[in-house]
Amino acid sequence: HENTGLQSHLPPEEQNYGATAAHVRQGPFVSVSRAAAAKSEYLIAAVLCYANLINFMDWFIVPGILLDIQKYFKLSDGGTGLLHTVFILCYMLAAPIFGYLGDRYNRKIILGAGIFFWSSVTLGSSFINELYYWLFFLLRGLVGIGTASYSTIAPTIIADLFEEGKRTTMLSIFYIFIPVGSGLGYVLAAGMADVTGDWHWAFRVTPCMGGVALVLLILLVPHRTQRRTAAHRALSISGTIRVAAEKPGVQRTAKTTWCQDVISLAKNWSFVWSSLGLTAMAFVTGALGMWVPVFLYRAQVVQGIVPPCLHETCNSSNSLIFGGITTGTGILGVIAGAEAARRLRKINNKADPLICATSMFISALCLYIALVVAQTNILSTFIFIALGELFLSVNWAVVTDILLYVVTPRRQSTAIALQILVSHLLGDAGSPYLIGTISNAIQDKNAHSFQWSFWSLQYSFIVCAFIGVCGGAFFLLTSFYIEEDRKEAGR
Fold this sequence. Notes:
Keywords: Membrane, Transmembrane, Transmembrane helix, Transport. This protein has helices spanning 28-59, 61-64, 66-73, 77-102, 107-124, 133-161, 164-196, 206-220, 230-237, 241-246, 258-266, 269-303, 317-344, 351-373, 378-393, 396-406, 412-428, 431-444, 450-460, 462-479, 482-490. The chain is mostly helical. α1 (28-59) runs antiparallel to α8, α6 runs antiparallel to α17 (412-428) and α12 (269-303) runs antiparallel to α15.
């Protein structure tokens, strides 16, 4: 290898509309070793997907039993919305820290510590009585810190394990567990509250599942996972990465400060506009995830379908149904988005942001229709909420894939952390509290009644339809820059 130039190992790259992929001519022995390595890569990805499932189940336990928690701690709509805001604020503030650490230190240790921390704190929150509501708020904030370590780092490990074609597929599978975990969080919370008659038990299941995830992480995930560009992946296959790094014309990856990384990302307009589009998605999904079961309950009370929840344990059927809707539409949406992106990339270089823009516009329309028909037809409300969530879910994997091919690999953890910070700071960190605060303001100006309790949430949710339209506009702006930024990241 010492007398062989770098170009003899790297044929011309075939650029697709995902990350740049370098293909290498492999001998029979290398093929066998790669086949064995591929099994290990899929196993690691499976562990990460399982942990992602638990992560988002834990996120949505509170919305699944929100009526019980609101009644138990005697919270107003604004105070109830603040509960999720505290969680998201801690999550987003911790994300850049873990992004910095993930780009520079051992990612397996960071992931394991995060899983152990959030599992322990979730278990602790199940033993709080009504006199210490502030402690419940505090522990939910600490759970947000623990989950930030996972959401920031896990996608970059998957990106390093798989090449362009498989990477999009594996990221799609990984992100399917966001809506699946979210939906199962509703189902778990409502189911445990119904079975035990005590909502506290809902917080005692995911810690056990987190313990299993931690054991699997320790046993199956390598202590170190390589951070490699596409060219480095190709060179490592042929066993020449060490020599190639010493050859003239091959640049070493320079270490940069976090501030330099942030400045570079701020100049990447595809990253900026797609992050703002994701922020709009987060705003809508955060508000819906927190308030839809309560909104449906109030609509049913107004229509006379269910009695008011005054003394006994509240009916959790809406949480169960909404959890099923979230799970089903999430799976269909992520698969449909990935497949649409795969097909349309072949005919349109700007397919990814255009798919995201279209789905946001359609989702906003469906949510608006759901609000309009809620007082008269509860079945139609469920249908249009399901359609709205379906089109929102189309974007999850596509937005992440955009980030991974417009940002260089050495900045990806930082980019994901910044995207988490911005999308949650301006998105779902404030949307549940904003919806609750607007609802409170409307109720305060009118006579206290179940009718105005419903109308107040209905009027508040109009904000979500408007923000959804803004998100579609941000993704349209992304399409103007996507080609040039992809090429720049490749260079």
